[in-house]
Design a protein that fits this description.
alpha/beta; four-stranded antiparallel sheet; 11 helices; 476 residues
């Protein structure tokens, strides 16, 4: 690590008041952050599913705080992971998607997408580096997806221990290579590593990041669990036994981790966070019988992964900190991925440097008992300057952006300048576009979105020469 970078990280260790004026907790907590891949907003019983079985996650919600308006910073996995680790929106890191932001050459599009970055820039300070320098032991096991090799590997980005695996659920490989039993299921293997990490570091302050590859495709699960769900009738738009079995394995993982914390008497000292990186894969269209296309359904939310509608970006989020978070509580305060970095720094008593910009707003006061007021927050923004996820002859996302301010959400589509305005309190399914009926509100939100893009130097797609061939790519 360069001397300048060491000085930057050392300067992070200044003890400070929380940015939302919360009372500092008496002791910085251990942090266990569980991130699920492609888990939809309604894919848990505690969020409305009558088909999927998630008793351990539901118990976590009963013993802690359930967020109803939590968002991923991107409509797919890479920008969300970058935002979580950096506390910065995608225009600052250049990470908008997994691969490229251009479409398959199925037709000519009017806009040329912005180039996409696939590895988290080395100059970006991660939450793991900040917590590591603050005395935390740090561990990461699972899907990284921000550059898996050399200097970009999580073991070089602030994690004392790091094992990456994200290729498949059975017959998986890890980096670095770690032996595992033939037939091992990846979710179980990652949980083994996580529980072992907790046990070995029970007497230290630790940060555990467990980004599961489940429930991402290729969809595969343990046969006995699949057989169980084959006997269940579908409920709502949830019907797939393999997908249900994958969710059940994630639920088992959560149960094992919580049991380890309780057994080691660490519940009072540990903040557990459970959330997803984007919406579920489904809800794009509906068959004549009403069933949504895709492996799950995000109803009542509109659309799914890859979209800036609620089904693509609203996610479940549950947090437990025994003795601090009141059990069985819920909050409708909007939060998003970039908020976790300043929140965790505040709880750890660490202040970021002014020249290391953090885009999120701390919600630390929401996590401490006795503070009944939800902190106010600035608007939440999304920027996607490309095309994402082909669906037959159309896209989940065309170049555009969105803003949520209070109950209001505006989507701006860059190809034609179209605006869509929704009141999410009254219309969570984004069924009634109010842009024409409320032009002043729509124009105000569009102006705020444009001002934010200027503030973060967000690049915009350019007009394509109609004789130019379409980009080739398969972002997902």
């Amino acid at each position: 690590m360069s001397g300048a970078r060491s000085l930057v990280l050392a300067a992070l260790l200044v003890v400070a008041c929380n940015t939302d004026q919360a009372t500092d907790p008496p002791r910085p907590p251990n942090i266990v952050f569980i991130l699920v891949d492609d888990l939809g907003y309604t894919d848990l019983a505690s969020y409305g599913s009558g088909y999927y079985e998630t008793p351990n996650i539901d118990a976590l919600a009963r013993s802690g705080l359930r967020m109803t308006d939590a968002y991923s910073a991107g409509p797919n996995c890479a920008p969300t992971r970058a935002a979580l680790l950096s506390g910065q929106y995608a225009p600052r890191t250049g990470i908008y998607t997994v691969d490229v932001t251009g479409p398959r050459a199925m037709r000519i599009h009017p806009l040329r997408p912005v180039s996409n970055v696939t590895r988290l820039p080395l100059e970006t300070i991660t939450i793991a580096q900040a917590l590591q320098q603050a005395g935390y032991v740090t561990g990461m096991f699972g899907k990284w997806h921000l550059g898996d090799e050399g200097e970009y590997h999580p073991s070089r980005r602030g994690f004392d221990e790091a094992i990456v695996s994200q290729d498949k659920h059975f017959g998986f490989a890890t980096e670095p290579p770690v032996a595992h039993a033939p037939g091992a299921y990846l979710s179980d293997f990652l949980t083994d590593q996580a529980v072992d990490f907790i046990r070995r570091h029970r007497d230290e302050r630790f940060f555990l990041y467990l980004p599961h590859f489940a429930v991402h495709g290729p969809h595969a699960a343990k046969p006995e669990s699949i057989a169980h769900f084959r006997e269940k009738p579908p409920a709502g738009g949830h019907f797939n036994p393999t997908y249900a079995a994958m969710i059940a394995s994630v639920d088992e993982s959560v149960g094992r981790i919580v049991a380890a914390l309780d057994e080691l008497a660490l519940a009072d000292d540990t903040l557990v966070i459970f959330t997803s990186d984007n919406g579920g894969v489904g809800g794009y269209e509906r068959r004549p019988d009403g069933r949504a296309t895709g492996i799950t359904d995000n109803a009542p939310l509109r659309s799914g992964k890859g979209s800036l509608y609620e089904g693509g970006i609203r996610v479940p989020c549950i947090m437990r900190w025994t003795g601090e978070i009141s059990p069985g509580t819920a909050s409708s305060m909007p939060i998003t991925s970039v908020d976790f970095f300043p929140t965790l720094l505040a709880l750890a008593g660490v202040r970021p440097l002014p020249d290391d910009p953090l885009d999120g707003a701390s919600f630390a006061s929401l996590l401490t008992r006795g503070d009944g007021e939800e902190p106010s927050r600035p608007p939440i923004y999304w920027h996607f300057p490309g095309y994402l996820g082909p669906l037959a002859d159309r896209w989940r996302t065309t170049p555009g952006g969105a803003i949520r301010a209070g109950d209001w959400k505006l989507l701006e589509f860059f190809e034609d300048g179209r605006l869509e305005l929704y009141n999410l309190r009254d219309d969570i399914g984004e069924n009634t576009n109010l842009a024409a009926a409320l032009p002043e509100r729509a124009d105000d939100l569009r102006a705020r979105l444009a001002t934010w893009r200027k503030q973060v130097s967000a690049p915009m797609p350019s007009v394509r020469d109609p004789t130019e061939p379409g980009d080739v790519g398969a972002p997902h």
